[in-house]
Write a structure and sequence with these properties.
The protein is of the alpha/beta class. The chain folds into two domains: 170 residues, Aspartate Aminotransferase, domain 1 (Alpha-Beta Complex), CATH 3.90.1150; 249 residues, Type I PLP-dependent aspartate aminotransferase-like (Major domain) (Aspartate Aminotransferase, domain 2). It is built from 15 helices and 14 strands. The strands form three sheets. A seven-stranded mixed β-sheet has the order 4-10-9-8-7-5-6, with helices on both faces. A hairpin with a 2-residue loop joins strand 11 and strand 12. The longest helix has 24 residues. It binds pyridoxal-5'-phosphate. Pyridoxal-5'-phosphate binds next to helix 4.
């Protein structure tokens, strides 16, 4: 149980009502507060770096809708673009000019995407990329890493992170063994295990899919040597390298993790930021591979609302702002660094053992875990301490991701006042 002095009565009431018609009262399990206890907060409004709940409480937001909101809530140009596009029509089911414009913009940031297909979510992107890899190579198996989450598709829910990890169901019921057994999962950052897996399965490995900076077991930073070796092993074995940049795209660097670490994947998956806060995903990569997708080739993938005109307007507004204002991205990164260093300093003063992992605009605070470089080490974190910390922060108006095994996000519009408020709250909470 959690005790609080803050009135969130209406949130609790709404949650009770929601549970009558929605599974668990939510439409995505990670929202249910299962990992931290208590009722989830219901939000009414967001503005800039702040959220306002149904009871009128205000929060500094570090969830940023699980990543998409690089420029905070309701940025003017995104809202205007959505509104203008909606007035012209919400969906045509036929080509529109903005689809190629958005793809071109994505290509400018990530030149490895020679051809692109827009979809509606991250999981559509990763599922399609896996199908393409199998179609292109004629091989069955895929490799992923323990604690990485790539959406909820059957082939990828094996030792998965995010909600699977939080709720203790990293291998979901309902996935047939014949399919799950084709997915090999290896410890992140473990070169020896990686080489062994390639030696055993290399000739039948269609693809390796990786969160190049992991966000879905909390933030875990890759060792450069590990990523470079992965690239090399993929080339050597004719295995396709898929960077799942759904979270890291436009977040760890405007050019994604591939720009940050100097790696060229065969395929890249997008979601979150690319849609400017509306549902959007994409996958792209080597022209010869992407040309295998229908209508050009034999790998089928489609979508009624894919490339939706309102969604592409939001995505264009978001990425155009990023392109024109590189200093804004830097501001968000600087904020993350100041926050992390501030938290570390407070912890040191209080002799409280804590680890802050961060890359770009993503961070996670692990409690009493020591260094955290893979899933095994993530599991060292004291989740009871995390829970207590979580609620202490929430009650002081700081909204973090409600699980130890998730990333938090900053934005270009978090302010010095937000930083000071957060650090003061951390001081009290620890
Ligand atoms: C790295 C990664 N891949 C894929 C997904 C799935 O994206 P979506 O929830 O948009 O389907 C997520 C979602 O959090 C993610 O973090």
């Amino acid at each position: 149980m959690t005790s609080t002095t803050v009135n969130r009565g209406r949130s609790s009431q709404l949650f009770q009502e929601a549970k009558k018609v929605l599974v668990g009262g939510v439409n995505s399990p990670v929202r249910a507060f299962k990992a931290v206890g208590g009722d989830p907060v219901f939000f009414k409004r967001g503005e800039g770096s702040h959220l306002y709940d149904e009871d009128g409480n205000e929060y500094v937001d570090y969830l940023m809708s699980w990543g998409p909101l690089l420029f905070g809530h309701s940025p003017k140009e995104v809202v205007a673009a959505i509104s203008a596009a909606a007035k012209e029509g919400t969906s045509f089911g036929a080509p529109t000019a903005r689809e190629a414009e958005l793809a071109k913009l994505v290509q400018e940031f990530l030149p490895s995407c020679e051809l692109i297909r827009l979809v509606n979510s991250g999981v559509e992107a990763t599922t399609s990329a896996i199908r393409l890899a199998r179609g292109a190579t004629g091989r069955r198996k895929i490799m992923k890493f323990n604690g990485c989450y790539h959406g909820h598709s059957d082939s990828l829910l094996v030792k998965a992170g995010s909600g699977g990890l939080t709720l203790g169901i990293p291998d979901s019921k309902g996935i047939i063994n014949e399919l799950a057994s084709q997915t090999i999962s290896v410890e992140f950052n473990d070169l020896q295990e990686l080489e062994q897996a390639f030696n055993t399965f290399g000739t039948d490995l269609a693809a390796v899919i990786i969160e190049p900076v992991v966000g879905n077991m909390g933030v875990v930073v890759p060792k450069l040597e590990f990523l470079k070796s992965l690239e090399h092993l993929c080339r050597k074995h004719g295995t396709l390298l898929i960077f799942d940049e759904v979270m890291t795209g436009f977040r760890v660097h405007p050019g994604g993790a591939q720009a940050l670490y100097g790696i060229k994947p065969d395929l890249t998956c997008f979601g979150k930021v690319i849609g400017g806060g509306l549902p959007c995903g994409a996958y792209g990569g080597r022209r010869d591979l992407m040309e295998l997708i229908a209508p050009m080739g034999p790998v089928y993938q489609a979508g009624t609302l894919s490339g939706n005109p309102v969604v592409t307007a939001a995505g264009m507004a978001m990425l155009t702002r990023l392109k024109k204002n590189p200093h804004e991205f830097k501001k968000a990164v600087d904020y993350t660094e100041q926050l992390a260093k501030g938290v570390e300093q407070i912890a040191q003063e209080k002799n409280y053992p804590l680890t802050v992992n961060r890359v770009g605009t993503m961070f996670t605070i692990f409690h009493n875990a020591g260094p955290v470089n893979n899933l095994k080490e993530v599991m060292h974190s004291d989740v009871n301490k995390f829970k207590a910390f979580y609620h202490a922060m929430l009650d002081q108006g700081i909204y973090f991701a409600p699980s130890q095994y998730e990333a938090n996000f900053t934005s270009a519009v978090h302010t010095e006042a937000d930083l000071q408020k957060t650090l003061a709250a951390v001081k009290k909470a620890l």
